[in-house]
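Quick illustration, no need to memorize.
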Amino acid sequence: MSGHSKWHNIQGRKNAQDAKRGKIFQKISRELFMAARTGGSDPNNNPSLRLVMDKARAANMPKDNIKRALDKAEGGDTTQYDEVQYEGYGPAGIGVLVEALTDNKNRTSSDVRVAVTRHGGTMASAGAVSYMFDRKGYFVIEREGLDVDEDQMLEAVMEAGADDLQSSDDQFEIFTDPKDFSTVRDSLEEQGFHFSTAELTMVPQNTVALPADKVETFQNMIDALEDNDDVQNVYTSAEWPDEPDED
């Protein structure tokens, strides 16, 4: 139930790119708006909203930003966003999943296609790539300042009912079945743990080695996709080449 996985590297790149562009709050605001408009603005009675609010807090989203998104939903804004998923391939058959919230499917579809094909990728039909990924609840607990070793963390995770614990030098990563997300979150919070990430994500069943000579091109593809305002998440099955250790 322990050991370092490639997911830390995959997810770390995604989060770093989002933060660098300052777009993460804008994307979460759209999710908050949709969740609140669909199920109401009380997270105690709206599990979908509670999930997005967890994500917002883990991303250190200011409370004012959260309030504005909820006020927009309560204020009768009639903007309609559709959830769409696009599938494609990068170099070496690497799977790429793109999740979007858009008010114009034609625009978003065109933009995603351009971002993928311009960087050497190809689009795929529905279901061609998604079957290679599993929906998982995903939590990250930073180890800095945390007086808990791997055995103690494993005990806490097992008590919470999670499926898997992956450990690295700087983080504990916890995976769980989506239906157990709230239970695991509440249990770990009651045990005094705080999350730097708390979300539902897509985890590749198997990773594919990204050729070293394709790293820059593939990264540019991911950057182009994540830079799109309509794109909420980009998942890949890439196993990135190891980066040199920093002294």
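The first strand starts at residue 82 and ends at 89.
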